[in-house]
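Tutorial handout. Part one gives the primary structure; part two gives the three-dimensional structure as tokens.
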Amino acid sequence: MRIVTDSTADFPGSRRPAALTVVPLRVHFGELELRDRVDCGDDEFLERLERSPVPPRTSAPPPGEFAEVYRTLLRGPDDAVLSIHIAEALSGTCQSARTAAALVDPDRVQVVDSRTVTMALGFLALDALARADAGQPMAEIAAACLAMRRRVGVVCLLDTLRYLERGGRIGRVRALVGGILSIKPLAAVGPDGTMEPVGRARSGAQGRVRLQEAVAAREPITQLGILHVANPVGAEALRAAAAARYPALEIGIGPASPVIASHTGPGALGVGFVGAPPDG
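Part two.
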């Protein structure tokens, strides 16, 4: 049983298991195409983002790349693949993966729309991998993933709206701030996988408090991680506050992928979390 995800999956402490197969999305600067976290690392990307006169755009991996990955993983007759990806409402990655699955072996490759992104997607992938290591069959793991996606979430605080606006994905977040561009908006991935406004702040300190309040509304929390884009000081402050509220949890910090950073811009902070199941 093999688990596949994509490069928008982030992990607390940047600890990505070697057994997890990751297919990179693309970041484009004009005619230059870079594979996310393959052709450019986090620091290199941020340097390019700051100096480039052309705003980056992002795209899904081509179906052929998914097909190659699936064929490689389906080595034996009993092998199977569960492929868990960024919300379909945010990217064409799921559709690309489904096209490849239909070409390779639709009976042994199942694609799941996580309806989320970044660290929340990472938590889904880690849970699926643990279940695969325990010997659970694909149908059970897929069912558990679909149930768990209702309990994961990610809330982010943007330092600026400029990058969402340049990427054409500002959507409902614009309505939260109107024309006051100095306001720092808080956004979350909603149940359908789209970005939804959840609050606003006038400073980073106030924004971190609002982030904590948004996560607290989903308590009890069983897993939690902090992500950031070129904002390690803010991330550490957020981690310290979260650790005081959730002393039993191991709370790691990790950078958001270049694809995510393309849309949030530098300074962004986020919290990925998993809520407790309905039975506690």
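Part three, for discussion. The radius of gyration is 18 Å. Residues 152-275 form a domain with the Hypothetical Protein Tm841; Chain: A;domain 3 fold (CATH 3.30.1180.10).
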